UniProtKB/TrEMBL annotation:
Gene3D superfamilies per UniProt: Beta Polymerase, domain 2, Nucleotidyltransferases domain 2
Gene Ontology MF, one: [glutamine synthetase]-adenylyl-L-tyrosine phosphorylase activity
Name the UniProt record assigns to this protein: Bifunctional glutamine synthetase adenylyltransferase/adenylyl-removing enzyme
Family: Belongs to the GlnE family.
GO biological process, any: regulation of glutamine family amino acid metabolic process
Position of the signal peptide: none
PII-uridylyltransferase/Glutamine-synthetase adenylyltransferase domain span: 343-483, 848-985
GO CC terms: cytosol
Keyword Nucleotide-binding annotated: yes
Domain Glutamate-ammonia ligase adenylyltransferase repeated residues, every copy: 79-320, 588-824
UniProt keyword Heme present: no
Keyword annotations: ATP-binding, Ligase, Magnesium, Multifunctional enzyme, Nucleotide-binding, Nucleotidyltransferase, Transferase
Gene: glnE
SUPFAM superfamilies associated with the record: Nucleotidyltransferase, Nucleotidyltransferase substrate binding subunit/domain
Length: 990
């Protein structure tokens, strides 16, 4: 042995991490050490390979024969040392069964894959069953058979791993052989089960593989998913056959998964069967038919895409597959197909532990499941009409999709390369400990071993990570492009080797992705991408990802149609398309808004410049900033109509800001209400100035004869406006000294009427309805009163309901001094020092009962009406207001305009229990959010949950529910209001 070869530096260059230990071990090999150094240096972990060899030599006894063979036969050395360096578990197996190293001397391992029939025969023979028998039955003693099955399985797995590591098998070849090995193991386990079960011949049992085993793409370690079908043997009683079939299936699963002295094989998972864990373990073909025709979910048909009979009665298994195949290929036409598939993918992502998300090889973004999901969805969409693309194996299906033009050639090749790399990495990770894991380890030693096992000997850690991240990015990119890019080629002439769908195939794909009118969607795509202009080129770049966002949203048709209208309005504007192309957040926000909210879409169409705003802060602006901008803008116009149009234009922009923040989950519901209220403050302040200027001009006045203020009332006064709310107000004025009272009143009336007229004019923005019906005497009373007039009225005529209305009176617009004096005037009325009398309490309850019986719209459901229903906003707000009227005189915290603040004060004062207060708070927030969401989705105010399924799904999306959860949203809503009503019954109605 040369000194250079075994020097510490030489060993480190070969990949040894502990050269001192390696020198000692090599010395023990004698003359064989130096000839084996080259093979050891090509292993995944030379230290582990050498240690494994030393241990195997000690176990084998005939160590001279072992070393001599390795020195003389490079192929055997490469196979054995490759296994010892890559798989700690198989190294342990060889130490327990050293005779198995001879398996690796087989020259056929270099070129010949083990045939499925040969694997089955070997495994059956291990348990003493006749491979040629129609119904093989084990003959070895039970415990001996179970152990023998494990040993034989490991022997065959050892041969496969050696071929895989030494001869670099294609990943689909290794996966296919692993699947065949699993099928043979299931057959042998069933043979053992037949030996255990008395009268086993009463039932025919078929084992149908699902998932990766069914698709012949199994991992080294994986649950083997199966479904069982049975039939009574000829002349057998059906009940007895069911019992026998169930026992056979149960024993088969235990034979594979039980731990014995020889370890375990893998779990057999039957949870993909009808009804999952809750359903019977075995069913007849007829029972399967009934379930799949009536009850099965979309994901169950997607799972059946890979169904394959692998053990037991294969004829019965083929009957099962023939039964379910037509259902699989019609699944894309089922109602809710898109929602179901999206929900299934999201459930997978949601269940990834946060600490594993970035290292998840299978389930994470850019992982194996993304490729498999994309390929299967394309198969389900187009496989109904094209049988060529139905292969159950992912890479075979991808090849056929590429060959058939459903996936572009370059994309198909890139996706194939990424999937093959990720699967190979998954195999190497699992092979080390023969453990079921899909997480890429983070420690350097493991990454070095993995990199070297994949042939990356130069900087194995860095190169592995770089290659992995590259393929992850490719999968993410192609996962989007795979579905949506080919749609553009159906309507636009795009040069290159792109997938070219026919118009019919494109419509099928659009329909499967959730578009209700695929032909219209294709027309929109054509209009957006036609031609050779720069605009069309950018649109072709943008649309694949935009389409993916539209498809994830509740109303893809509305999203695409809205995008077309906005693009036609802004397409020639230099910043528009470049902003969407370069700022992904803006494009994603725009897509989500367009495909969810008619209200926001209408605002965007009228204010297309608002697209720019989506890239910035969407929190509502302050009233001061808005008032200053509105007053400045209005002052630039002489005509009152033009001035208020400018004011309303700013309001329209800010409505869009608030709606966008709400839709994107960036603005809390209380902040939405406050933002809308402050926006109304600014709008009224600026419009009051314009109306006053117009009234003075009309009368030839240099200055106003009276001071004016506007008092916000109701939800406006409480900072709790919703998108569809009117502005409930009262007008108050105070003549200047020496001014004729009648002239002052006439002027004030003219200003109030002009303000209401200007804000109600038709225009491109939502009108602001100014409602003064809460004033004294309602519509019968004067529109504007003096401060003394209000004082006189309240002193003589005020009713308890008017005191209740004043709880949310906020003199917020107009002359500051007049506003302050008005609030000082009403303070004793709304916050009486001794509280209201018991008679007043009775009167409040009487009025509430009348509201409940008379104001609920005809035909409305009292359980779901958001404002007036049981547990709705009115119930909660009346309850809080009654507490304010009774106790605000002595509890300062209750002297607030806002419902939630008053509720918190009541809880702190002990007027309501913590649990009850929490229920009312949560319910108020919930119902307010739902009410806003309904308006955002429908584009008009609404106090009932929509009946249209798309609108209901959109409301659920605005509330943060995942796709397919609209029923859960409704159930949650009923629960919130039911709990709130229980509290209202106790606190308000006593």
């Amino acid at each position: 042995m040369t000194r250079t070869a075994t020097s510490k530096g030489g060993l480190v260059r070969l990949g040894f991490q502990d050269p001192e230990a390696a020198q000692a071990a090599l010395a023990g090999l004698g003359a064989a050490a130096e000839p084996l150094l080259g093979a050891l240096g090509r292993t995944a972990d030379p230290d582990a390979a050498l240690a494994g060899l030393v241990r195997l030599r000690a176990s084998a006894g005939d160590d001279d024969a072992l070393l001599a063979t390795l020195v003389e036969d490079d192929d055997t050395a490469m196979r054995l040392l490759g296994v010892l360096g890559a798989s700690e578990a198989l190294s342990d197996h060889l130490a327990r069964h050293p005779e198995h190293w001879h398996e690796l001397r087989d020259p056929a391992l270099a070129s010949t894959r083990s045939a499925a029939w040969a694997l089955r025969a070997a495994l059956l023979a291990a348990v003493g069953a006749d491979p040629d028998a129609d119904v093989p039955v084990a003959t070895r003693p039970d415990a001996e058979a179970v152990d023998a099955l494990r040993v034989e399985y490991r022997r065959l797995l050892l041969r496969l791993a050696a071929r895989d590591l030494a001869h670099r098998l294609e990943v689909d070849d290794a996966a296919a052989e692993l699947s065949d090995l699993a099928a043979g193991t299931l057959e042998a386990a069933l043979a053992v089960a037949r030996q255990r079960v008395p009268d086993a011949g009463l039932a025919r049992l078929a084992v149908v593989a699902m998932g990766k085993c069914g698709g012949r793409e199994l991992n080294y370690v994986s649950d083997v998913d199966v479904i069982y079908a049975y039939a009574p043997a000829e002349g057998a009683d059906e009940a007895a056959a069911l019992k026998v079939a169930t026992q056979l299936a149960s024993h088969l699963m235990r034979v594979c998964s039980d731990h014995t002295g020889e370890g375990t094989i893998w779990p057999v998972d039957a949870n993909l069967r009808p009804e999952g864990k809750a359903g019977p373990l075995v069913r007849t073909i007829a029972s399967h038919r009934g379930y799949y025709e009536r009850w099965a979910s979309t994901w169950e048909f997607q799972a059946l895409l890979k169904a394959r009979p692998v053990a037991g009665d294969l004829a019965l298994g083929r009957e099962f597959v023939e039964l379910t195949a037509p259902m699989v290929w019609s699944a894309a036409g089922r109602d809710g197909f898109v929602e179901d598939t999206q929900a299934m993918r999201r459930r997978v992502l949601d269940h990834i532990p946060a600490k594993e998300a970035e290292r998840q090889l299978k389930l994470g973004a850019g992982g194996l499941r993304d490729v498999e999901f994309a390929v299967q969805l394309l198969q389900l969409v187009h496989g109904r009409a094209d049988e060529r693309i139905r292969p159950p194996t992912t890479l075979s299906a991808l090849a056929e999709l590429t060959r058939g033009g459903y996936v572009g050639r370059a994309d198909g090749e890139a996706l194939h390369a990424a999937y093959a790399f990720l699967r190979t990495l998954e195999h190497r990770i699992q092979l080390h400990g023969l453990r079921r894991t899909h997480v890429v380890p983070a420690d350097e030693a493991s990454l070095r071993r993995l990199g070297r096992s994949m042939g990356l000997f130069s900087d194995p850690v860095g190169t592995l990570d770089k290659t992995w991240q590259h393929h992850r990015r490719e999968v993410r990119r192609l996962h989007e492009k795979l579905f949506y890019r080919p749609l553009l080629t159906a309507v636009a002439r795009i040069p290159g080797e792109e997938a070219r769908l026919t118009p019919e195939a494109a419509q099928l794909r659009l329909a499967a992705l959730g578009f209700a009118d695929p032909s219209a969607a294709l027309r929109h795509l054509e209009a957006l991408t036609a031609g050779v202009s720069r605009t069309a080129q950018i649109q072709r770049t943008l649309l694949p990802v935009l389409l993916s966002w539209f498809a994830d949203a509740p109303d893809p048709d509305a999203g695409l149609w809205g995008f077309r209208r906005i693009s036609e309005s802004l397409g020639a504007t230099p910043w528009y398309l470049s902003t969407l192309r370069d700022e992904g957040e803006v494009a994603e926000r725009l897509a989500r808004i367009l495909a969810t909210s008619r209200y926001a879409t209408d605002l965007l169409e009228r204010e297309p410049q608002g697209v720019r705003m989506l890239g910035g802060d969407l929190q509502p602006l302050t009233a001061e900033a808005l008032t200053e901008e509105m007053l400045a803008s209005a002052s630039r116009h002489d005509q009152p109509e033009a001035a208020v149009r400018a004011v309303r234009g700013i309001r329209r922009r800010e409505l869009l800001r608030i709606a966008a923040g709400d839709l994107l989950g960036l603005t809390d519901v209380a902040d939405v209400g406050a933002g809308l209220s402050r926006l109304t403050d600014a709008t009224l302040e600026a419009t009051l100035a314009v109306a006053g200027r117009a009234a003075r001009t009309q009368r030839g006045l240099d200055e106003a004869p009276t001071r004016m203020a506007i008092v916000a009332m109701g939800r406006y006064g409480g900072f709790e406006l919703s998108y569809g709310s009117d502005a409930d107000v009262m007008f108050v004025h105070d003549p200047l000294p020496g001014v004729d009272p009648q002239a002052a009143a006439t002027y004030a009336q003219a200003v109030a009427n002009e303000l209401r007229r200007l804000l109600a004019l038709p225009g491109p923005d939502p009108a602001l309805e100014v409602d003064a019906d809460l004033r004294p005497e309602g519509r019968q009373g004067p529109l504007v009163r003096t401060l003394e007039g209000y004082a006189g009225y309240y002193a003589r005529w005020s009713k308890v309901w008017e005191a209740q209305a004043l709880l949310r009176a906020d003199a917020v617009v107009g002359d500051p001094g007049l506003r302050q004096r008005f609030e000082e005037l009403i303070a004793p009325l709304r916050y009486p020092p001794a509280g209201i009398t018991e008679d007043d309490v009775v009167e409040v309850r009487r009025i509430k009962a009348r509201v409940d019986s008379e104001r609920l719209p005809r035909g409305a459901d009292p359980h779901t009406h958001l404002k007036l229903g049981r547990g709705g906003l009115a119930d909660i707000e009346w309850t809080v207001q009654l507490l304010q009227m009774r106790y605000a005189g002595s509890v300062p915290g209750l002297r607030t305009l806002r419902t939630l603040d008053a509720l918190a004060a009541a809880r702190e004062a002990g007027l309501i229990g913590d649990d009850d207060a929490a229920v009312l708070q949560q319910s108020w927030r919930r119902v307010s959010r739902v009410r806003n969401a309904v308006t955002l989705v429908r584009g008009k105010p609404g106090d009932e949950l929509p009946h249209d399924f798309r609108e209901r799904a959109a409301v659920a999306a605005v509330l943060g529910y995942p796709p397919g959860s609209s029923d859960a949203m409704v159930n949650d809503q009923l629960r919130y209001t039911r709990l709130a009503r229980n509290v209202v019954d106790r606190v308000f109605w006593a």
